[in-house]
Amino acid sequence: MTRRELRRVIELFFSAASFDGDTTRIIQTVADRMVEVGELVDLKVENQRGYSAKPSRWIKLHESDAVLLGTIAMETHNFSPFHPNQFLRRFHPSDKIVTDLSRIGVIEQAFEDWLGQPGWKQFVDPSQATDSLEGLLDWYINRLDTEGSPLRLESTNIIAVNHRPGDFFGSERNPNNSRWVLCDQLGEGIYVGAQPGQNENHWIPLIIRIQKGDSRTLELHCCNDAVANTDLRNWLLVALGARNQQKEVIVLDHEASELQCTIPIPLGIQKILCLIGEPTGEWQRYTVINTVSTGNLVSRYVPEIRVQ
User: Fold this and answer.
1) Do 217 and 208 touch, CB atoms closer than 8 A?
2) What's the CA gap between 172 and 196, in Å, rounded?
3) What's the rounded mean pLDDT across residues 59-78?
4) In the chain, fewer beta carbons within 10 Å around the N or the C end?
5) Whole-angstrom distance, CA of residue 205 vs CA of residue 186
6) Stated pTM of the model
């Protein structure tokens, strides 16, 4: 089904409900999330972007929560939403529903199999011999030292992210009162940052060494893909936090059953959060069923981040 066909089908339901908002944006946002968690496959249909359903399967998140992916219908079971933004079918993995799923050919998929390899591994060069995020950071630091451009701290408009995990992150476009600061305000060390690009909305991700007499910068490029470049920057920020023993932070709000990321999270972590929670609409904030098990799950698969 093409994106246009999907929109035409779903927009009828919005019209029936007298909804007059931006239906195209909403449909696209949900479809992108479904692709991210493996509910749909993003592909080309007759030179148009479209979607195809993946085989149905279910994933156990913890003892009281599981999620059903795919298009299979379950007429004998009710999947009640726990949040207004919920779109995945969640259920308590009791013997009854698991047996019924097995009977119609829907098997359990291990969370590890669904997750696949860590998201940072896509940035590992074939010539690299590394199996860790820290190794990826080392590789870019070596490139920075051998290929980086000289940086004059007193006359640059390059800005960098300081090492203050948990503080308001902000944006390179508006760095006031945020973790984005001018390079001459930082001590010696390795940082990620950005330099102005083609216009005020275009910023090029960098890795930066600030060192007396030999400061350098290196642009982060990955297949000429701006999204990938930013994702690489985010992974290197996580790696720097772990290296400096100042891990980047995800905060759990047990009372509100919510999770707040304090940095732009890498896409690999976003994939996990889109499976186990629902975006609240606030920046990097998700509602989850069980904050304790969610925190344990994230810590287990991304030990370089501190969950508190």
Assistant:
1) yes
2) 9
3) 86
4) C
5) 18
6) 0.89
